[in-house]
């Protein structure tokens, strides 16, 4: 896409807000095995005014101070933390931060709440996307149904950890998990993830009359499940055991004696597990109709119907506010950078050789 905006000044004011030019960090140079957390990042439980939300990884980063402990972070802070603490490859981590910032943050001032609405993240200049940013806990664009540990927004608490849902997940671990040191099925594997997602989807589709599992949400839900094996597993053993996953999910803290992955985790690495889930869980992107019957969403136009990854990319931009494209100066520079990062990751999928800029509705 052409980008012919004049270069912004280093300081720009819109609607009383001071714009901050977002800068893409460099790929970390130290990318080997490392014990996390280090002494500079002890666990401190969040205070009553600190933001936490539906993502265990983000909550854990904040609880250890890898991102600001108040849960309000910039694109750069999130991207650097994902590289440092989880050894995510630059583009893979930056894509997650970019998606969150474009859909539920304020990319003009480069601030995002990892939880709900915060006065520290004002609505976009001119309230072009409504009277609040929402934070990543706001349902619809990023946060969605069929979570491993959060209820669907329509029927319960979509922000906070739900013991009952996690206990149901652990039933699948007992059925399909690998044997751990205690001789019981306490090591997560692909079969466990498949059982968990089948259970999540079937249960929520039946209970939630407004159940939605669009391509963007399906991609995120399977990607989050794949994190269990590829990101949360101990780098020394490559095993995701019950105590490890319980520490991340229940306590939102790094486990004892935990090491990040021994080499950077890329989108392609996590995508292998996502593709295994796609193949084993026969659900098309779709949603419940007025009668509570699940119906498939229409496929996107060519070439975005050539692969699931490309479908999910198109669907994500179709649900990112199109008003972002009509911005100027620093605001537009930031939007273009973040959208370009999303395309960089998506372009690895067959058919994704055409960048899409946001074209979704505002104020939702």
UniProtKB/TrEMBL annotation:
Q: Look up keyword Heme and say if it applies.
A: yes
The cofactor required is:
heme b
- What superkingdom does the record give? Eukaryota
Q: Which family does it belong to?
A: Belongs to the chloroperoxidase family.
The protein's name: Chloroperoxidase
Entry keyword Phosphoprotein: no
Query: What range does the record give for the signal peptide?
Result: none
Please give the coiled-coil regions recorded for this protein.
none
Q: Which residues form the Heme haloperoxidase family profile domain?
A: 39-279
Single GO term (MF) = peroxidase activity
Q: Which InterPro entries match?
A: Chloroperoxidase, Chloroperoxidase-like_sf
